[in-house]
TrEMBL record:
Record keyword Disulfide bond present: no
A Pfam family this chain is assigned to: mTERF
This protein's name: Transcription termination factor MTERF15, mitochondrial-like
Similarity-based family: Belongs to the mTERF family.
InterPro entries in the record: MTERF (IPR003690), MTERF_sf (IPR038538)
Record lineage: Eukaryota, Viridiplantae, Streptophyta, Embryophyta, Tracheophyta
SMART domains cross-referenced by the UniProt entry: Mterf
Superkingdom of origin organism: Eukaryota
Organism: Coffea arabica
Residues annotated as signal peptide: none
């Protein structure tokens, strides 16, 4: 009995036991039949082998994962890898991975696409990035599919270097429909921003690919924010910094907006749109749960977590690894109380290695040496710029502690002083 897969692949053909040979010929031409299955013989032999064909297809024949038993398949696979490496500039490992997912019936289309991209100013690195992320581009019609999109985006990114850089970094723009997605969104954005420079933000255009109907969702979601009384500056900030959040399903967006409002966020402040972003997307939701777990492990209550989120919603978007390292340094190395950190969640967004550890080490050393009794407000230690910090905590004590600057620069540990 034929497998469902065989039935699907042969659906255009009326298969009859009276004409099995014709079916076998078609299968051989489509590379669905291996010579080990099809043996020359009588019509009955063909019919007998027909059942074996179903098992063969289910075990790998004709699917993109090819068998090593066929010399032709081996050659095809190695040739594709070679082409992706030598012509497209992909690393061998990536080329080998993609070779199992693409099939070259001929090199006419891939060669035409590569020549077209080079003519448009794409460098070898740009092409490698494009093909490595979206190999299907090699089979697009350059004149009908790629050229109209490149011409459109050249009106946004006038510089050719900027154009090729942004398109290679955002391959989905060459895969999205110009008529159904890109142009409608452009006109919608233009009605909002006019000739504002924010129209050129790659981040805005990156969000196109992740929304089924970006224009409809964008218009509906912005209407919800305006209906609530959110300031235009905040709406534009959300659109510029987190455009994907404004293009999600409009029902989901409305639900999250009122959820954030009911949590006590003031819709007239910028923290409102930050809180919105922190609640959108599967990645953000998963990160939210992980952050809550880390905070709870350091003794934060649910109220402390909620208050910290209210002060700085970005504290719920930090990676679990960074957050754990940050809390370990502040609490175990500097000796701070965990609840004290909860009052200043903004400091958790800074770089641990470039700001928190250097400044924290200086403060901790000064305390050990008896120059300061206890820490001043964390805000005055970690928030101000470097010039202020040096003038306040390093320069005044350099004569008494000559190694202080080395500690600040990470050249020496506090216990080496």
């Amino acid at each position: 009995m034929l497998s469902a897969y065989l039935f699907y692949r042969l659906s255009p053909i009326k298969i009859s036991a009276k004409i099995p040979t014709a079916c076998f010929i078609l299968l051989q031409k489509g590379h669905l039949l291996s010579s080990s299955i099809f043996a020359r013989g009588s019509r009955n032999d063909c019919c007998a082998n027909f059942c074996s064909l179903a098992e063969a297809i289910d075990s790998g024949y004709g699917v993109k994962s090819r068998t090593a038993n066929s010399a032709l398949d081996e050659y095809s696979h190695s040739y594709i890898v070679s082409y992706l490496v030598n012509s497209c500039g992909l690393p061998a490992e990536r080329a080998n991975f993609l070779s199992k997912r693409v099939t070259f019936k001929s090199l006419e289309k891939p060669n035409a696409v590569l020549a077209f991209l080079r003519d448009q100013g794409f460098s070898k690195a740009h092409i490698a990035k494009l093909v490595g992320a979206a190999p299907q581009i090699l089979f697009y019609n350059p004149e009908k599919i790629l050229l109209p999109k490149i011409e459109f985006f050249s009106s946004i990114w006038v510089s050719r270097s900027e154009l090729t850089k942004n398109l290679s970094a955002n391959h989905h723009l060459l895969r999205s429909s110009l008529k159904n997605k890109i142009l409608p969104l452009y006109h919608c954005l233009k009605s909002m921003y006019g000739t504002d420079d924010r129209l050129t933000s790659p981040r805005i255009w990156r969000a196109v690919y992740f929304s089924k109907d970006p224009t409809k969702n964008l218009a509906s979601n912005i209407a919800v924010l305006r209906e609530l009384g959110v300031r235009e500056s905040c709406i534009r900030s959300l659109m510029t910094r987190h455009p994907a959040a404004v293009m999600v399903n409009d029902n989901r967006f409305r639900e999250v907006v009122y959820e954030v409002k009911n949590m006590g966020f003031d819709h007239l402040k910028s923290t409102f749109v930050q809180a919105l972003y922190a609640r959108f997307g599967m990645r953000n939701r998963l990160n939210w749960e992980r952050c809550c777990e880390v905070y709870r492990s350091w003794g934060w209550s649910e109220d402390l977590v909620r208050n910290a989120y209210g002060k700085d919603p970005n504290c719920m978007l930090i990676s679990e690894q960074k957050l754990s390292r940050m809390m370990d340094f502040l609490v175990n190395k500097m000796g701070l109380n965990s609840q004290t950190v909860a009052r200043y969640p903004v400091i958790l967004n800074f770089s641990l290695d470039k700001r928190i550890i250097p400044r924290g080490s200086v403060i901790h050393l000064l305390r050990l040496k008896g120059f300061i009794r206890w820490y001043t407000r964390l805000y005055s230690i970690f928030i101000p710029g470097e010039k202020y910090f040096l003038s306040k905590f390093v320069i005044p004590y350099e004569k008494q502690v000559p190694q202080l600057r080395d500690v600040y620069q990470g050249k020496m540990g506090i216990f080496d002083v």
